[in-house]
Amino acid sequence: MNATLLDTLITPVVMLHDDLTLAYVNPEAMALCTQPYEAATPFFEVFPFSKQNADLAALLLRLSHALLEAQCSDILGCCLAGKKGRYTLRVTRLAPSMGLMVQIVVPQQAGAQRVSYFNISPVAMMWTDSHDIIQAVNPAFEAMFGYAQADLLGRTPAFLRDGLDEQTTLEAMWKAVVDEGHWKGEVHHRRQDGEVLTTQLSLSAISHDHCATTYLSFFTDISHHFEQIKQLKARAYQDYLTELPNRFALDDTIYELILTQSYFYLIFIDLGYFKQINDNYGHLVGDRLLHAVGQRLHQLDRAFVCRYGGDEFIVLLPISAQPSDVDTAFSSPFLIDGQAISVIAHKGVAQYPRDGYTSEALIRYADKSMYKMKSSGFRS
Predict the structure, then answer these.
(1) Are residue 76 and residue 42 in the same domain, yes or no?
(2) How close are the terminal C-alpha atoms of the chain, in Å?
(3) Residues 6 or more apart from 343 whose CB is under 8 A from it?
(4) Which residues touch 303 (CB under 8 Å, ≥6 apart)?
(5) What is the CATH number of the domain that holds 201?
(6) Do 241 and 367 have their domain in common?
(7) Which of 76, 80, 100 lies closest to 88, judged by CA?
(8) Residue 170: helix, strand or coil by DSSP?
């Protein structure tokens, strides 16, 4: 078994099948082993614990039958051959026919709170049987997904993915678990309230020759991480000054239009005498003017508006519109800090596919067209 989360614990943890043979031993527990072992080796052969006037094997077997799922009980005052001090064996029943979790509490931790890692783990955990039917979940799982354990027992985790297209991911997951015993990746799940969570799922198989395979899953909610990425991506595609899309967003939009539209216009706009506006009114007014220009252009029907850089804007229009529609944005002065500022706009027009087949070709054509009109004294 490759249970990566349990491997990181500083607490020795051993997973046992119902016949008290080993299913999994984490690295901290391996340090206490007295001999090499393989899966299905009896627990007390590898961990020769003893307790005065007690048959530990019989006691552990009785606990395996007496404990209810997710319940735990301590066996105090255990000695380990070759080691000093007394240990506590904290035994947790995972679910019927699912085996036991044994935490070995070392002497210096003898006063530790008497609860099972399964119950106090901040990581959501789920046990399923050989048919992937849920046998137990821990409180962290209940908190993450909003379900009580009683609502989950006897169901498969598939209902947590209702309406979510995860088939390709799940096929890859089960192939890896069958081939390698373990898989880790991103899977979407739905909470009881309908909210979709992006989770990092770690799934491990526990099996040996004479017992059916069972599965241990760890879930980590990474939805906030994806929300942060979404916000960063939005910022990366937005001009900070005008709040319009920037040239990265422009490239994506042109590419999409090329794939989906037969024709469209690309209009390159340059604001005339903008340097003089900055000199006369100050750069703060100039910045606010750029924002106001962007907002007026943004109000054009069916227009995609981008601040290309400096005082340059690019507008994409459907072929059913007219390039002259952009002139309305400059037909009246802009009121900035009480100042009425008239703006002259020079524009150049390119039409797809007549004037180019790529974003670079269309922008280059419209830019040259704009400079020809600018040099000839044309104004919008």
Answers:
(1) yes
(2) 72
(3) 271, 272, 277, 289, 293, 330, 333, 334
(4) 297, 315, 316, 317, 321, 325, 326
(5) 3.30.450.20
(6) yes
(7) 76
(8) helix
Give CA–CA dist 29/24, Å, rounded.
10
User: How far apart, in whole angstroms, are the C-alpha atoms of residue 152 and residue 256?
Assistant: 44
The two structure tokens encoding residue 376: 């000839």
pTM across the whole model: 0.47
| Residue 329 lies in domain | 237-375
* H or E stretch at 366: helix 359-375
- Phi/psi of residue 56, each to 5°? -60, -40
The residue written with tokens 């909003």 in the block is: 146
Q: What is the pLDDT of residues 46-79, one digit of tens each?
A: 999 999 888 999 999 888 888 887 788 889 889 9
Distance of CA 297 to the CA centre of its chain: 36
- pLDDT 10s digits, 273-329: 999 999 999 999 999 999 999 999 999 999 999 999 999 999 999 999 999 999 999
Q: Both 135 and 116 in a single domain?
A: no
295 neighbors 289 (Cβ within 8 angstroms)? no
Q: Are 277 and 336 in contact (CB under 8 A)?
A: no
The answer to whether the CB of 51 falls within 8 A of the CB of 78 is: yes
C-beta separation of 238 from 303 below 8 A: no
Say whether both 14 and 111 belong to one domain. Answer: yes
The residue out of 96, 120, 144 marking a domain boundary is 120
Give the three-state DSSP class for 376: coil
Is the CB of residue 144 less than 8 Å from the CB of residue 221? yes
